[in-house]
């Protein structure tokens, strides 16, 4: 097939101009395949558009995972449900469908250290990234320090606005916080702003009746829990630590 070099150069220029990198990189291959398979022009166009759609989804997935600030690349399939017998695997896999995000619901994982709370929250966050959702995985202490810094810098409004745009905010290890009045107010504002608008996942080693340890009073704890738990899936995990199990195996 004779190729018009001028047209070919113009095609490449236009594909760059309109930011269609996947078609730009693969259109020659797609054309050759269309000729071989005797596809119609409409079918060729469809195949080219599918190439671009798949490429954009993959780039978005990579970007979302990078921006999420995960500790690792944990997945549901990596989780040892056989060891963590207290966890309802069907419930976790249902949450991994992300319907809770569409419903603007929350998830709270409660349990002692090392039982898989962070792993499961990160794995669900990873699924959200793969489905094009924006996610932020934040240690609770670091998050509150970041908000306090925003108060000092006069950028709190912008910070809250940025956080509200995130589809799924994961706050890890809230049980290790001990808030003063300022941080308590900031945390309440964060929960209130996301209430019935965007989803949260929270992990904690403290049962709800001990959240007055985190906040300055039982009243403050109750105000936060009222909004956090109203539309929430509470997953209580008991059992031995995965880390203790791993250390025991390595020591054998």
From TrEMBL:
Biological process annotations from GO: DNA replication
Domain of life: Bacteria
UniProt-recorded Gene Ontology molecular function terms: ATP binding
Keywords of the record: ATP-binding, Nucleotide-binding
InterPro entries for the chain: AAA+_ATPase, DNAC/IstB-like, IstB, IstB_ATP-bd, P-loop_NTPase
Listed Pfam families: IstB_IS21
Domain AAA+ ATPase: 103-236
This protein's record includes keyword ATP-binding: yes
Gene3D superfamilies in alphabetical order: P-loop containing nucleotide triphosphate hydrolases (3.40.50.300)
Family membership noted in the UniProt record: Belongs to the IS21/IS1162 putative ATP-binding protein family.
Protein name: DNA replication protein DnaC
Species lineage: Bacteria, Bacillati, Bacillota, Clostridia, Eubacteriales
